[in-house]
Amino acid sequence: MRWLAALAMGAFMTADPGFAQPEYQIIDFAELEGWAEDDHQAALSVFLDTCTDIDDPEWQSLCALATSQPDAKTYFELFFRPVVINPNETALFTGYYEPELQGSRFRGGQYQYPLYKLPPEIKPGTAWFTREEIENQGLLRNRGLEIVYINDPVDVFFLQVQGSGRVALQEGGALRVGYAGKNGREYKSIGQELVRQGIYQPHQVSAQVIKRWVRNNPVHGRALLQHNDSFVFFREVSEVPAHKGPLGAMNRSITPMRSIAIDPAFTKLGAPVWIEKKGREPLNRLMIAQDTGSAIKGAQRADIYYGTGSQAGRRAGSIKDPGRLVVLMPIQIAHALAPEG
Question: Is the model's pLDDT at 12 over the cut of 60?
């Protein structure tokens, strides 16, 4: 059965062969905390949004079965097995959201901070200039790359972290922007940098705390933001209706509290994932892995999508909780990776 295991490995995960291979543990559905109480039909509906885009025969067969609208709980229990990847690790859950920014198509007044298109010379997999070099040297100015001008540089930075958002336009109407590419530099956490500098303790750091500190310390705040070498570019996403969520990594709208961002080196995009999040607001729920993020690295790492706007932002920014992440894999793939017992 070695050939089957190899096939399953390629079908489910793409971890770098230079690193240690993940460990897999199959568990029972009865071991999932709160499984019986979840709204499985809601999860199945979100699964159907993207399962047709999973390029694998095993998944395509299960997707076709799902389109017949079976009883959702029975469907998942019959055709999937819960698998914990790297069971000795403790999961880390954070939250993200779609910001709503204030902007204008035209530069002027308070609207001075552009969102940029991807420069044509940047090629995938290659490193370009750092954030500090881009901003201090004005490498993007006067090149016709501006999409819209925002009224707050801190909002621009956090939009780059989130990857997508809506902009309410001063001249009326709104536009949505999505991720178009990056400068090939590694993401560096500015929250961790604030802790390293002794400004805050780890438990004090949140998105709201960081925003407030940067705004209250404009000179040092600019240097803090430039600590993150990564710089994200955008594209206008006019094909997504306003009532739907932003596009995730599968180029489909994501759903609040049912879509998560994962590390695709370990978890297949489109897979159902059961999360058991601890903390002040425990959450046991079947989610769908429909997005990724530059800060989302590891088998037990996930970012929960909380929705659009400031209220969703406050909720998402307060999440930094431990727990467990369990991937639902097709039975054949699960048993090839981790024989039960």
Answer: no
Q: Is the pLDDT of residue 328 over 60?
A: yes
Bridge partners of 230, per DSSP, are none
Alpha-carbon distance of 244 to 104, in angstroms, equals 22
Residue 72 CA to its chain's centroid (Å): 25
| Interaxial angle between packed helices 153-162 and 218-226, expressed in degrees from 0 to 180 and rounded to the nearest 10 | 20
DSSP output for 27-80: --GGGSTTGGGS-HHHHHHHHHHHGGG---HHHHHHHHHHTT---HHHHHHHHE
CB atoms within 10 A of CB 265: 15
Site of tokens 């750091």: 205
| Residue partners of 268: CB distance under 8 A and separation at least 6 | 11, 12, 13, 54, 56, 59, 289, 327
Residues 213, 10 contacting (CB under 8 angstroms): no
- Average pLDDT for the chain: 90
Measure the CA–CA gap between 22 and 329, rounded to whole angstroms. 15
Q: What percent of the chain has pLDDT over 90?
A: 77
Alpha-carbon gap, residue 209 to 203, rounded angstroms: 11
Q: Check if the beta carbon of residue 114 is closer than 8 Å to that of residue 150.
A: yes
Structure tokens at 21: 């291979």
295 confidence band (pLDDT: 50, 70, 90): confident
Q: 134-168: string of b/e by CB count within 10 Å (b at 16+)?
A: bbeeeebeeeebbbbbbbbbbbbbbbbbbbbbbbe
pLDDT band at residue 115 using 50, 70 and 90 as cut-offs: very high
For 283, the 3-state DSSP assignment is: strand
